[in-house]
Amino acid sequence: MEVTDGPKRDLLEVSDLRKSYGPTIAVGGVSFSIRRGEVHALLGENGAGKSTLVKILSGVVPVDAGSMTLNGTSYQPASILDARAKGVSTAFQEHSLLTNLTVAENLALPTLKKGIARLVSRRGNDQAAEAILHEYDLAHFDPRTVVSALTLADRQRLEIVRALSKRPKLLILDEPTAVLASTDWLFALIRTEIARGTSVLYISHRLNEIRELCARGTVLRSGKSVATTELKDTDDAAIFEMMVGSRLASFTRERVVIDTAAEPRLHVNDLSAGMVRNVGFNVPAGSVVGLAGLDGQGQADLFHALFGLKPLQSGEIKIDGKAVRIKSPAHALRAGIEVSLLPEERKTQGIFPTLSVQKNMTLSALRSISSLGVVRGQRDAALARKVAAQVDLQERYVGFQIGELSGGNQQKALLGRVLMTGARTLLLFDPTRGVDVGTKQAIYKVIQEYARSGGAVLMYSSELSELVQLCDECLVIYGGRIVSRLEGEQIDEKAIIAAATGHREDVSVRAAA
């Protein structure tokens, strides 16, 4: 998608950019251009160099070599503020909002409005925020809400609006829909912006979104630009081959016919916690049960309650037929259950960024790698290498600080940590959010093998296609209640969407609740 009137002059030109961190080459030769009024896709695996490129364009890190021009003028931003002043604004994948400040304060930074005696004017900042929120269809946001109280999806919307409010010539959107239940709001804003002549660099692993928005895309592999391609002339398999150097192997999983007479591995009856009300379902051994729902319908409360992070108000949980009262994550592990929380915010809730991948992975298995309370290094390393192979994480990454890895490799490490517990039931919360198609395939394979070996999986996903692909049964949550239960061939995106938006409710589910 791009403005077609007038000459197609380039807004941004990037030539042979290079950036290294010691011996690690993050960007090793990237060249491309973005036209005025164009939505240009940036594609590549996790670790291909996309995040480093975004940081260079945004002024977060300096480039080692190469050149950039913006509007025909040399572009070398010294900071995020310098980039904004020159017309480049970014909505980051890992949010840059200050969660202890209000919506209004985040929109105003770095310069808060001041009143009498040069003191910060709360009223002035609130009024300015109200105008911005109204312009970008977020008038329902309260400017005085502290950002930490917002859902992850609303934080993403605020991150995007803050970038847009700077009136950029180039807007960079890094995985902007990873936590949004619908693209309608964002895509409407993008169409308005390009009509004004704004250019957009759009980074996403979701090729359906890329195709809807973008006419052209640049593919990165191993820190280098492979090609800039006309997307209408390039199919998905060819794009993947450019990204990884090989064709995409199709993933298929035969659905398991659930034996309702057998004792389920996990049984939940009439559970209420947080906004969840009277929820009941089973997760049998050898099966993958999916959970679908729009953002904020209670799915996080349900997973937190099952893992002891949120107290139960009522209801019953049974593991292998035995009633358990899960009071904490440690108690959940003793009961044979583990939630990866491959969490909504991986960097702040999942990893210890300054520790090695090895230490991050083996934290869940300290008893098996220690003697008399002392961790045995050889056991630690051997176990980490073994599990890294299971989750398709290259052995060379085991010694790296986990904060240095791409998001996809961090996700693999977190999944490895979960597997190390030896848990018989896994709770996976959006395990493939923000990872590339190759990493998704690796995670799907791990889930399949785990279920095939007799494990039970309860998985929430914001991507309906993977629920259709992976699940033997799919539950749909709406307003804190399970409103639909789909099995076998009933599991399709239209049926899930109908239930998730309140337009379909199974009588049997309602009666059981």
Indicate how many domains the architecture comprises: 3
CATH class label of the largest domain = Alpha Beta
Q: What percentage of the residues does DSSP assign to strands (E)?
A: 15-25%
CA gyration radius, whole angstroms: 24 Å
Structural class: alpha/beta
Shape: globular
Strand line-up of the largest beta sheet: 6-7-8-3-9-10
Distance between the termini: 47 Å
What is the CATH architecture annotation of the largest domain?
3-Layer(aba) Sandwich
Please report the number of helical segments.
18
What's the rounded overall pLDDT mean? 86
For the record, what is the CATH homologous superfamily label of the largest domain? P-loop containing nucleotide triphosphate hydrolases
Helix content: 25-40%
Major pleated sheet:
6 strands, mixed
Outline the low-pLDDT stretches.
Answer: 3-7
Q: Quote the CATH topology of the largest domain.
A: Rossmann fold
Number of strands: 22
Describe the structure.
A 6-stranded mixed beta sheet has the order 6-7-8-3-9-10, with helices on both faces. Helix 13 (377-390) crosses helix 14 (407-420). Residues 3-7 have low confidence and may be disordered. The chain has helices at residues 50-58, 80-85, 103-108, 122-135, 152-164, 184-195, 207-213, 236-244, 299-306, 329-334, 346-349, 357-362, 377-390, 407-420, 437-452, 464-470, 493-500, 507-512, and strands spanning 10-21, 24-35, 39-43, 65-70, 73-74, 88-91, 170-174, 199-203, 216-221, 224-230, 266-273, 276-283, 288-292, 314-319, 322-324, 337-339, 370-371, 374-375, 425-429, 456-460, 473-478, 481-487. It is of the alpha/beta class. It is 32% helix and 24% strand. The protein folds into 3 domains: 10-87 and 168-244, P-loop containing nucleotide triphosphate hydrolases (Rossmann fold), CATH 3.40.50.300; 266-336 and 423-512, P-loop containing nucleotide triphosphate hydrolases (Rossmann fold, 3-Layer(aba) Sandwich), CATH 3.40.50.300; 353-418, no CATH class. Helix 15 (437-452) links the parallel strand 19 and strand 20 (456-460). One of its GO terms (molecular function) is ATP binding. This is Galactose/methyl galactoside import ATP-binding protein MglA. Pfam families: ABC_tran (PF00005). Residues 12-247, 252-504 form the ABC transporter domain.
